[in-house]
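REVIEWER CHECKLIST
Item 1: Sequence provided? yes
Item 2: Single chain? yes
Item 3: Sequence as submitted:
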Amino acid sequence: MLNDLIARMDAGSALTEPQVADAVAALVREEVAVELKADFLSALARKGETIDEIAAFARLLRDRAVPVPLDDATRQREILDVVGTGGDRLHTINISSTAALLCAAAGVTVAKHGNRAITSASGSADVLETLGIPLHHTPAEAAAALRERGFAFFFAPNYHPAFKHIGPARKLCAERGQRTIFNFLGPLLNPVRPTAMLLGVPRPELCEPIARGLQTLGVRRAMVVCGAVPLTKAETGKQKAEMAHLDEISTLGPTTVAEFYQERGFAVSELRPQTFPLQPAALADLVGGDKAANAAITRAILRGEERGPKRDAVQLNAAAALFVAGRVKSLLAGWELADELIASGAAAAKLEQLTGHRA
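Item 4: Structure as written out by the authors:
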């Protein structure tokens, strides 16, 4: 089956949804050779994944996830996820995770879906676990946390058992230097099926197809972003400056944004950081460390002790997430609310509630 699909893709044809279903069934079967799975994923990447293929893979894999027993009252809320695909390799602090905690402090229901670090020193699971937020809730316990505290972390390996049969093929592709659809599929597989998402991707050309994929999956409000980061000659070790990209909204350069909301249609635009009262900064000002260092930075930001460029980055991304969740009417209003949550102590109090000890 996979050989036939590889031949089809090598001829330039896109996969139909039934063919994607056949591919998913083969990828999660232990008896299918790792090399064949890797060849399939490589062929799909070479062809270039279509919006329909991305949506079909996400839908079919999400259907295999362990279900989360949300009650009707929780389902009626706007449920937000703030997440990056990873893969930008810029080793910044955990911006999305800290912004998600700020949104929870604003009363937004946040279902954070993520994993341990793959291309960085500290993934969302690593930093949140270090802060004291549980990773290994049962689905019922996680649903209760979401209902009662407005925040729960959904550790991807606990909800996607089929992935253990895909992991070796992904690893083989990585050894070959080949990216796969799974490099950006993870954030689309949140088992809670959030209604609102701020999602960062590592390349600007991914913003539109991933946003359209989210729209196809039934997400009501979303912003998919990729921020530009100017690199100096000293940072690149080359003769000229270059531009890197961050899977977050950038405080250092323009951010490509693909967005859609219930009340208006799909749009692609550019967000420039000069709109906000940001401090001068460079990439080095946003770089973090291991999970302990990044957890300490998150605490310092939420307590109002860190007031430099790291806080600016978190505050800007929280502003966008609050807007996507419908909590504020504009990004500037989101910026002001995030600032108020920190200044009032509400952000630190929320972290204390979620971890059981003082922030």
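Item 5: Key structural point noted by reviewer: Strands lie at 79-84, 109-114, 151-155, 196-200, 221-231, 242-246, 255-261, 264-271.
Item 6: Recommendation: ____
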